[in-house]
Amino acid sequence: MPESKGRDRKTAAYIPPPKSKATQPNPTWWAPAFVTLLVLGLLWIVTYYITEYRYPISAIGVWNLAIGFALLMGGFIMTMRWR
User: Fold this and answer.
1) Where are the transmembrane segments (predicted)?
2) Residues 6+ apart with CB under 8 A from 48
3) 48 C-beta neighbours (distance < 10 Å), count
């Protein structure tokens, strides 16, 4: 009777591939950082409008909006990388 061609006993059993860095969770500071950026950006813009363009920094004028939107975009970009 012929022998079956089963697993070669010289090879090891299945060894899973190493985990890639992409599947690792974010550090613990990640979520509080992006929430802080989102809230800070929103407060920056709201403060600018409520105070009739005098605060947070009156000397730079409309650039206050750019700062607020930059903070918001930083927070949104961080949310896309959150695991």
Assistant:
1) 29-51, 57-78
2) 55, 56, 64, 65, 68
3) 22
Residues 60-80: tens digit of each pLDDT: 999 999 999 999 999 999 999
Give the H/E segment covering residue 41. Answer: helix 30-50
- The model's pTM is 0.70
Report which residue type is found at 36. T
Amino acid at residue number 67: I
Q: How far is CA 49 from the centre of its chain?
A: 28
- Residue 60 amino acid letter: I
DSSP SS3 for 76: helix
Structure tokens at 44: 């920056």
Tokens of 58: 């009156």
Cα 75 to its chain centre, rounded Å, is 8
